[in-house]
Amino acid sequence: MSQPRRLHLGAFMRPIGIHTAWWRYPGGYPDANFSFPHLKRFAQRLEAAKFDAFFMADHLAVMNMPMAALKRSATVTSFDPMTLLPALAAVTERIGLIATASTTYNEPYHVARKFASLDHISNGRAGWNLVTSGNPDEALNFGRDAHLDHAVRYARAREFFDVVTGLWDSWADDAFIRDVEEGVYFDPDKLHVLDHAGEFLKVKGPLNIARPVQGWPVIVQAGASEAGRQIAAETAEMVFGAGSKLAAAQEFYADVKGRMPAAGRDPDHLKILPGAFIVLGTTRDEAEAKKARLDALVPTDSGIANLSVRLGVDASGFDLDAPLPDLPETNASKSAQAQIVGYARKTGATVRALAQRVGGYGGLTMVGTPAEVADQMEEWLVTRACDGFNVMFPFVPEGLDDVVDTLVPELQRRGLFRTEYEGTTLRDHLGLPRPANQFFPA
Amino acid sequence: MSQPRRLHLGAFMRPIGIHTAWWRYPGGYPDANFSFPHLKRFAQRLEAAKFDAFFMADHLAVMNMPMAALKRSATVTSFDPMTLLPALAAVTERIGLIATASTTYNEPYHVARKFASLDHISNGRAGWNLVTSGNPDEALNFGRDAHLDHAVRYARAREFFDVVTGLWDSWADDAFIRDVEEGVYFDPDKLHVLDHAGEFLKVKGPLNIARPVQGWPVIVQAGASEAGRQIAAETAEMVFGAGSKLAAAQEFYADVKGRMPAAGRDPDHLKILPGAFIVLGTTRDEAEAKKARLDALVPTDSGIANLSVRLGVDASGFDLDAPLPDLPETNASKSAQAQIVGYARKTGATVRALAQRVGGYGGLTMVGTPAEVADQMEEWLVTRACDGFNVMFPFVPEGLDDVVDTLVPELQRRGLFRTEYEGTTLRDHLGLPRPANQFFPA
User: Fold this and answer.
1) Please, what is the end-to-end C-alpha distance for chain A in angstroms?
2) A21-45 burial string, b = 16+ CB within 10 Å, else e?
3) How many CB atoms lie within 10 A of CB B322?
4) Domains of chain A, with CATH numbers?
5) Distance from CA of B54 to the nearest CA of A (A)
6) Omega into A108 within 30° of 0, i.e. cis?
7) What pLDDT is recorded for position B313?
8) Rounded CA gap, B41 and B27, in Å?
């Protein structure tokens, strides 16, 4: 009989706050996303709480927003993930370190080498979040006039994955003999030259670094599109993001895991961790009040810009202090419009309140006491909507301290989360096997 | 009256030993170049000795050697410099951190962002060693069939430098106001969009990170060719390498510094630090014996391969235990051949001894007591052959400990080297000004 399933917890740390107003919350650190001392302390607190991983999203450009919204965003200055994570590796010992790297605007030799280096420096704690780049403005920083098409991006991503993993397997695990007497540093029979020439990429190899401690760093993905689900089923070991409703998450979970056997994979070898925005209080009212206080800090112009996108209708002329007017038909997402209209009719919320609500954060949100949030997490886990969560903190340090000091102990009391790390690598934490070397089978 | 000139000292740490046999030296750490705990300890020792910088060369491929030599080389597995240096930044406080990054096989947006991130994480200690890639095999790892021509590489490097420094200047130093009350994170008037479109590169900008602590990380270069000297005079703040003979180094020093006024620069704003391979002993005989012991560990096949390259003649058929035979004319470097032939005739060295000598390390070498090596360093400094040295350790840890424990105190006793850091940034250590922002002049 196997152990009952437990939650895996990642911490979503770039942007350090997904909510537009995180940096304005009273008592917070407005520069937290760009302060190494703060980030070091957060990583060490998360490790003390036994989190699986510290997770960094990324963009290779400032966000593609109008200046009225951009000037309010802390994301315009933050660290390159693959520069920050090695620094955090040196001041932590167990927590996993996952960085996003685009397959569209990178070279596979660099990506393979940097993640292998991080995996060695951290003793096996690296993860690679493979993205094809969502922000079209990235193209303009890399010599292109326009973003690559979605289909081309995914075809390139698949080939890129094969090249990176092929480079990681350049050396057998026991290639480096360092025979001081004979003066032989490695066994030439344990070196594989990849010599890849495909549709998008041409890379000779070998990689100039030993095979990673974990064999391969953990492969993470976020895409929820049809192409994203398929590449996840074929290659991902952790998936981030799965929609904000329980039923949709269950559908996603069953769909992606259901595709895995056809790809020759065990569904247990992929962990699905949707993002969860968590606001805690000693009472439900206190938690709701914190959330309301945060939402009230969303500037109206940011909120109206977001609301217009979600409604598919320009909301900038609406009366801010009146209820939502009747809306024309939209060619944008009808479900997004219907969701907001339904909420507006039910609550009678003003346009200003709606703008603040969608201007903050619109995904899966859990607000309540530690017991209430633990109940919700447990429901998601046992109904197979997820294997855990990537926790998004509403503000720092208080929102992070609340999770570490009140929610994690509640989850541990219920046996839903570890009280000690059982292993040393990110694969150990996630219960993932170490991949065999494709060129040097055991 | 200004302070008398003092030496600047860098530590050449990738490869951790430039000598082929460093990893075989008795009592050494054969895996030192690939062990984070060892490298961390070395960085902390060098910082305690007040070194200016920890310097990492780099190659984006395994070395282009025949397998008989390659299998003896520790460089085949080592860390990506821009992954190792952030980790070292987290466990040191003052020492500068210089990494090599190629302008031929990188994108300027990545380079600008990573060095800016390192500069912020380290509080102003980053340096960028700009190279155009010397190892032709790198091309094969980046989608090309052959290395770019020397002239094209240098033209691209010059444009690449303009783009990187332009991206570093994307934000005025005081752009990030973080006005919590108003909800404004930055002042839009203090953002510059580069919008570069040149012969080789097209990059819109802005960079998604604040201007570096140092304005720009310190610009380092190594090239000694005509094109390399000119780009150094125009852009470099530290130059590594200048030939192994005093007269040649003086010529290089005078030539490069002499070109600077025409480029509108103060010659004091460039520091020239040739590499110096240093072997110390309590007596000269002891130092010579260490060097001989190390050279004796160079495998004959590595040495013969190197000797053949230097002579421009296949030496593999020569009698190893006989003196060097008469040689045919060569189309390779006549000066390299003449130098070795002269040494062979003067000393009567056997082919085996010559192979060991050139197979180890052939550049500027200082062997002796701390006082003797300090004498030589002082002569180079006062006769304006250099502003200091990038120290190459013959083996580790002993060779590094010898420098830290015996040579540095001797230099400090003579007033030739600092006893405390006077500032916090690499620019402070080197006596370099902080560049003004080209788009937001003070």
Assistant:
1) 29
2) bbbbbeebbbbbbbbbebbbbbbeb
3) 10
4) 8-282+369-430 (3.20.20.30), 284-360 (no CATH)
5) 16
6) no
7) 83
8) 17
Q: What is the pLDDT of residue A353?
A: 86
- Maximum Cα interatomic distance, chain B, rounded to a whole number of Å: 84
CA angle B151, B152, B153 (to 5 degrees): 90
Can you say whether the dihedral through the CA atoms of A244, A247, A252, A257 is positive or negative? positive
Residue A227 pLDDT exceeds 50: yes
pLDDT in tens, A412-430: 999 999 999 999 999 999 9
The reported pLDDT for the residue numbered A331 is: 60
ipTM of the complex: 0.94
Cβ-based burial of B31 (10 A; exposed 0-12, middle 13-18, buried ≥19)? middle
For residues B335 and B333, what is the distance between their CA atoms, to the nearest angstrom?
A: 5
Token couple for B284: 């000269």
Shortest Cα distance from B160 to chain A (angstroms)?
Answer: 12
CB contact under 8 A, B121 and A87: yes
| Residue of chain A whose Cα is closest to the Cα of B106 | A107
Return phi, psi of residue B366, to 5°.
-125, 120
| Mean pLDDT (chain A, rounded) | 93
> d(Cα A425, Cα A431) in Å, to the nearest integer?
10
Residue B288, exposed/middle/buried by CB under 10 A (0-12, 13-18, 19+)? middle
- pLDDT value of residue B134: 74
Q: Are A310 and A358 in contact (CB under 8 A)?
A: yes
Element (H, E) at B42: helix B36-48
Q: Considering only CA atoms, which of B76, B108, B105 is closest in space to residue A107? A: B105
Q: What band does A69 get if pLDDT is binned at 50, 70 and 90?
A: confident
Are B74 and A185 within 8 A, CB to CB? yes
Contact B78 A171 (CB under 8 A): no
Q: Which helix (H) or strand (E) holds B373?
A: helix B370-382
pLDDT by residue (tens digit) across A243-294?
Answer: 789 999 999 999 999 999 999 999 999 999 999 999 999 999 999 999 999 9
In a mutagenesis test of the A interface, which of B208, B298, B395 is the best target, namely the one with the most A β-carbons within 10 Å?
A: B208
Cα separation, B159 vs A310, in Å, equals 42
Quote the crossing angle between the two packed helices A81-89 and A36-48, to the nearest 10°.
Answer: 60
Q: What is the DSSP letter of B182?
A: T
- Edge-first strand listing for the sheet containing B96-102: B271-273, B238-240, B218-221, B126-131, B96-102, B53-56, B8-14, B388-392, B275-280, B365-368
The shortest C-alpha distance from B81 to chain A (Å) reads 9
Query: Given the structure tokens 């934490």, which residue do they identify?
Result: A429
What mean pLDDT do residues A11-17 have?
Answer: 91
The predicted pLDDT at position B136 comes to 83
- Which of B119, B185, B194, B297 is best to mutate for the A interface (most A CBs within 10 A)? B185
Closest CA to B209 of A36, A21, A294: A36
With a CB cutoff of 8 Å and minimum separation 6, the contacts of A245 are: A364
Q: Which of A40, A102, A208, A356 to mutate to test the interface with B (most CBs of B within 10 A)?
A: A208
Which two structure tokens, joined as six digits, stand for B282? 């309590």
Tokens (6 digits) for B190:
């203090």
To the nearest 10 degrees (0 to 180), the angle between helices A246-259 and A226-235 is 50
For residue A28, name the pLDDT band (cuts at 50, 70, 90): very high
Q: What is the pLDDT of residue B335?
A: 66
Name the minimum distance, in Å, from the CA of A59 to any CA of chain B.
Answer: 9
Q: B133 a known binding residue?
A: no
Asked whether the beta carbons of residue A109 and residue B142 sit closer than 8 angstroms, the reply is yes
A406 is in an annotated binding site: no
Residues facing residue A102 across a β-bridge = A131
